[in-house]
Amino acid sequence: MNNNAKFAFWYMLSLVALIFMALSTGMIFFQVINKTVADVLAGVQGYTDEIMKFAISAIIIATPLYYWMLRLIKKAFKKGELKDDSGIRRWLTYFILFVSAVVAVGWLIATINSWLNGELSLKFILKTLTVLIITGTIFTYYFYDIRQGAKAKPKVNLIYLIVSLAIVLGAFITSFFFVESPQNTRVRLYDQNVVNDLSSLDSGINSYYAKNKSLPQDLNALIETNDYYVTKTQLGDKAGTQKYAYKVVDATHYELCATFKMNNKNLTDDKTQYADPRFLHEAGYYCFKRQVDLIIKDGQALGVPPVPVR
Description:
The chain is built from 7 helices and 5 strands; from the N terminus they run ααααααββαβββ. It is mainly alpha-helical and 310 residues long. It has 2 domains: 4-175, no CATH class; 182-303, no CATH class. It starts with a helix and ends in a 7-residue tail after the last strand.
């Protein structure tokens, strides 16, 4: 019975899983290097939680899939269904080696390019070692497999299995010491939505002032017309748990207040780069003292220096 189509499916699916598993493992180690190796010029340049979370997701799916496909292929060898001289086996094994080589070359080029653009030499060395270890493990295994086939020693295969699993699981476990938890991510996104609403309200208040030469008495004045680009949903959080507070302090100063779930003043550098410096806040109820951007005098708009956010 000809099972070439089935074996081709196993090999190609194992290749896809291998690419995701290897790249994601490398991504995690790269991100850890970016965050742990101090660079006074770049800070935590290159580190993002989004990359870490994608890599974790890929490992969760790709790793068991890859080893499952590998197990099916090995069982076919033992049963004699897949022969050493099988064209499918030889062509697809070399194709896996070819794709792995292309990925390794691209990876090394990107690593060298980052170094030439000013990345620390220590980072370059660690990333290069990461690429060489991951790709070296893949290459030596498949070269051994294509040369030995059914004659491959079970002990050697077991060593490759243990080494590859140790690398992947090491990256997977390490990632949880660096990545933000789903709970904290959701809390941060909630606070960011609140800040986005307050920013829209702040812009609306300034537009109202520019048009009417006075501050609105309350926030409802911003939604009575479409002139200020503020909607009713922006007067409170999307969960419906709070309404934002607004208070007129004097002719050109006002306060916007809201309740936040976390302090964004002490976030790590990779988080604060996305924070609005006008709305840095502590956890709990917090008020921002704001000043209109323009003062209308004698029919002319004069610039007003910004007031530091407290």
